[in-house]
Recover the amino acids of this structure.
């Protein structure tokens, strides 16, 4: 049995987890610069200590309704082979330990674009934690 540490966050009614080693940092809302002609999934560009980072709106990538105008997203900056990318999420949760024994294929209730971005689900006490496929989530060719 292997155990993974997962950084968790919420988007709409779903709770997601990604390996902690994929997370560079978590930031409160950062002002974004819109990018003309960019795919709709691109929320904008943020300046992270002089580094320009693309912010991907996970609500859009998952086919979920947009967040309310008065709700600001949180940035989960992840490491990718092409550099850092920010995932715009609704709320940051805690780091959890999940066992490979609790991992299952994605539930049938996960449909549409969300299904393509979910590797599977961990059955944790009281809820399911969806394992987000970070490389697919940040791949704008799939957006």
């Amino acid at each position: 049995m292997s155990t993974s540490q997962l950084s968790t966050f919420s988007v709409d009614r779903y709770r997601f987890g990604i390996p902690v080693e994929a997370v560079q940092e978590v930031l409160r809302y950062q002002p974004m610069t819109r990018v003309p002609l960019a795919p709709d999934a691109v929320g904008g560009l943020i300046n992270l200590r002089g580094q320009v980072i693309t912010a991907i709106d996970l609500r859009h990538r998952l086919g979920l309704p947009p967040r309310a105008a008065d709700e600001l997203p949180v940035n989960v900056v992840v490491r990718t082979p092409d550099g850092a990318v920010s995932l715009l999420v609704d709320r940051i949760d805690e780091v959890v330990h999940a066992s490979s024994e609790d991992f299952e294929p994605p539930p049938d209730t996960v449909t549409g674009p969300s299904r393509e971005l979910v590797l599977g689900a961990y059955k944790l006490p009281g809820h399911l934690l969806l394992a987000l496929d970070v490389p697919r989530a940040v791949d704008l060719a799939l957006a």
Q: What stands out?
A: The longest strand covers residues 3-11. The domain at 3-142 is CATH 2.40.50.180 (OB fold (Dihydrolipoamide Acetyltransferase, E2P)). The helical segments are 58-61, 113-116, 134-138.
